[in-house]
Specification:
The protein is mainly β and about 375 residues long. It contains one helix and 24 strands. The chain has a domain of about 260 residues: Neuraminidase, CATH 2.120.10.30. It has a five-stranded mixed sheet with strand order 1-17-16-15-14, with no helix packed on it. The termini are far apart. Bound molecules: calcium ion. Calcium ion binds next to loops.
Length: about 375
């Protein structure tokens, strides 16, 4: 009798130490029905493509990390680099990152927003966002005119080429979310409320803080949420209007979060990460710090996030798709009532790092693969 009493108690104690804190989930079961997906290469030969947007005419505007913005035509051929793109800090993870069309972008062109790592004084760098008018030239290229820098992350950091974020997403109220990172060597800045390191930023389209009052006393007014390590995926759930993000952990501990204004997501005070050289980073939980909705151990190196709303894959409606760089996969998350109830691993056969994922106007899911010489745009449709 004694051993029977002890076994369940021991099991509970182990779960409390090794498992997630209340509210966080990991390792969801596979969905009952496996997806049947056909993956076709639409464009190839890109250099570290990072972000993409579909133009109203169906062509694709794509960034290449070394600093080029290009248009991929309907034939899958990339046009000449668009002129007028600002100089970028193209080292390590730095360079030209995301791209976002202005809400009123039309057939004739319009404003585009780009995020990038910006060279600063003395060899330092930091994330920045610029806006410019994309004037199409009718020959597959164009010019970015009237370029204005609307956001400069502070402080700039020296001696690191990593963790710049950065995705750009329109909030339902017209605000612009900009995700950032901890710059790798500036972890100590992340919990500082006046520093723009390791934060989700919310701006008006001209770059001023979206809300005049800070989200919490002492916070920079541009900060929406704090305590983030490196967010390279962000999307709005059209069903709820809520922002969702994915961020990289170190060794383990990639996270899916639903960042809310004025909340602190914990890095590096709490995490499910270990240092690359060993040892846990922080505690698993602490009062006042938010748990992730979901986390991955080991890491898949999360980059790119899309929430599917199309008709081509009816069974995918409302599912979240997360690009994996290290895992060379696309993670499909079935999310119900804000919780992940199933996870399916797709595209491992591609054996490519997946940098971004977007739903196209055709209802297909489109992914960007990361490679120095043969980065691709891959179109996913239902397999027959
Ligand atoms: Ca966290």
């Amino acid at each position: 009798m004694r051993s029977l009493r002890f076994v369940p108690v021991f099991a509970v104690a182990v779960a409390a130490i090794a498992g997630p804190a209340a509210g966080a989930q990991t390792d969801a079961p596979k969905p009952e029905q496996a997806s049947r997906v056909k993956a076709e290469t639409f464009a190839a030969g890109l250099s570290h493509p990072w972000g993409m947007q579909f133009l109203p005419d169906g062509r694709i505007l794509v960034t290449e990390k070394p600093g080029r913005l290009r248009i991929v035509g309907k034939d899958g051929k990339a046009g000449a680099a668009i002129s007028g793109v600002p100089d970028v800090f193209a080292k390590g993870q730095g360079g030209l990152l995301d791209v976002l069309l202005a809400k009123d972008f039309g057939e004739a062109g319009g404003d585009v927003y780009i995020s990038y790592s910006e060279p600063r004084e003395g060899g330092a760098a930091a994330t920045a966002v610029a806006r410019g008018r994309l004037v199409l030239d009718g020959a597959g290229g164009g010019t970015l005119e009237n370029v204005t820098t609307i956001f400069q992350q502070q402080p700039a950091i020296e001696g690191s080429t990593s963790h710049f974020g950065s995705r750009l997403v329109w909030a339902p109220d017209g605000g612009l979310f900009v995700t950032t990172g901890d710059r790798g060597n500036a972890r100590a800045e992340v919990q500082k409320p006046a520093s723009l390191i390791g934060k989700v930023i919310k701006l008006k389209p001209d770059g001023v803080a979206a809300d005049a009052a800070p989200a919490q006393p002492g916070w920079d007014a541009k900060i929406w949420s704090m305590g983030h390590r490196n967010i390279q995926g962000a999307a709005i759930d059209p069903a709820t209007g809520q922002l969702w993000t994915v961020e990289h952990g170190a060794r383990g501990g990639d996270e899916l979060n639903q960042p809310q204004r004025g909340k602190n997501y914990g890095w590096p005070v709490i995490s499910y990460s270990n240092e690359y050289f060993g040892g846990a980073i922080g505690e698993k939980s602490q009062a006042g710090l938010e748990q992730p909705v979901y986390y991955w151990v080991p890491s898949i190196a999360t980059s790119g996030l899309a929430i599917y709303t199309g008709d081509l894959f009816p069974e995918w409606k409302g599912n979240f798709f997360v690009g994996g760089l290290r895992g060379a996969q696309l993670a499909r998350l079935v999310v119900r009532d804000g919780a992940v109830v199933a996870e399916e691993t797709l595209l491992q056969d591609l054996e490519q790092r997946i940098r971004d994922v977007r739903q196209g106007p055709d209802g297909a899911l489109w992914v960007l693969t990361d490679d120095a010489r043969d980065g691709q745009i891959v179109r996913l449709t239902p397999a027959q």
